[in-house]
Predict the structure.
Amino acid sequence: MEGYDVVVIGAGNGGLTASAGLAQKGFNVLLLERHNVPGGCATSFCRGRFEFEVALHQLSGMGTPEKPGPLRMMLDNLGVLDDLEFVEMDDLYHVAMPDGFRLTLKTSKDQVISELQEMFPHEKESIERFFDLVYSYANQMLAAFYFKDPDASREKYPLLYSHAFKPAIDVLDELFSDPLLKAVVSVYWGFLGLPPTRLSFAYLAMLFFVFIEFKPFHLKGGSQALSNGLINRFLSSGGTVRFNCGAKKIIVEDGAVKGVITEDGDHIPANHVIANASQVSTYVQLIDPENVPNETLREMRGRTLSPSAFVMFVGFDCEASQLGITDSTTFLMANTDITDRNLNRMQRLDIDDELMVLSCYDVADPDFSPPGTCQANIVTLKYGDPWLRVPPSDYHRVKYRCGEAMLRRVEDIFPDVRKHIEELEVATPLTHMRYLGHPNGAIYGFEQYTKDSLFFQPGRFSPIGGLYFASGWTGDCGFQSTLEAGLSAANSIIKKPNL
Ligand SMILES: Cc1cc2nc3c(=O)[nH]c(=O)nc-3n(C[C@H](O)[C@H](O)[C@H](O)COP(=O)(O)OP(=O)(O)OC[C@H]3O[C@@H](n4cnc5c(N)ncnc54)[C@H](O)[C@@H]3O)c2cc1C
């Protein structure tokens, strides 16, 4: 069997950018993907006349041509930027509660502050101080961490040191007294997987910062267009891809990678492997146990899996405005609870008062769905464990029972949705498990508790020679981070001497 310089396992974001980056530099790369399309989470599927977006709600790090963000620059370097059309969203998010509370935050810092101050005049100064803190923290973080200041110290970056490991709730409690305000400004926890009691302030601050500075985006054609652009770039640079072809084994001899065996039984020699598959399946299923250092397994056992998601994809036979949907991103908040009770909610099977996010791509891009229609993607975070205990014979009944409960929550805010449904599909944690191959269908890799947060992540390297990681399992999750992780893994190989 023909050998390759590098075999990449998985065509999710990290696998795609790693493959494209290496092929562009002349490496002979084979990309193996178990599914029949590229993208992993970054994909779409069709039902009736709708093409549904699977994962992307808001893309961070893009910026505008005039003020490019890191992701725009990266995609430009990869040569895919001109093949894609990005759509800027003009709201950060809208928050809606069944009691009639409504608030939209636009995307400029001044607007966010004034919209919040108008709604919460009794917390006027604290709101100002919160965003000063977000910006000061983000600037210190960028200087010390991303630009790798060699002289970083507690004295030079006091906020970074005092707030990096602080739970977001501590900051909210210090600054605000109104529970509704605390819930509204921390609602992005729904994108990060942990409630503010567990989430490091660092994540909340950085998310606000990147979305305000570089604006939230979506893409014409959805995230599948991005995945298609990357795979086309890979193929035109001489890369080889095999779909419907999972990796079954990574061959390791004397502590170093020697090749990959596919699920079809092909033996492919290679001295470098980049795993976009989860770190768990790579170390536990793909590599024989005697070749995985005990320390690596011990370190991995200390981590916990992130939640998966329950997602409803709905195609409507009318335009978004007819349903009362006026913003791209609406958080449906049943209460102001931001405590650990949210972990219990994510652990239970049924849907009741969970935080949900509803994205309607047609608001920013009226051509997203067929003329006269629109679509919504509604997500709530759920751990995989309870779904694994559902007997197969009950699965459909439980799935649609939960879907019905989710729909009722949407109706609380947009009462007319039910009568305009043309297509509806539901994905559970088991769906994510099936299509991504991740344990328990975890969509954000390992949970990003403070001890496992960006400051302590294991990174793209492995103790096994020639094995690298490029995914949300060894770094931060989200589109921007995983796309960056792929290129970073590619660069580790490109920069190796004697290759
Ligand atoms: C519902 C949902 C909503 C989200 N919303 C957002 C959002 O709004 N903004 C944002 O930035 N992020 C969002 N995310 C997160 C983001 O989509 C992910 O962090 C990111 O896409 C993960 O990329 P990845 O590189 O880790 O690969 P993944 O997408 O996890 O893909 C891994 C790939 O590896 C393949 N694979 C696994 N094992 C094998 C094997 N043995 N052989 C071959 N192939 C294999 C799988 O088939 C899959 O294609 C969302 C995710 C979900 C699920």
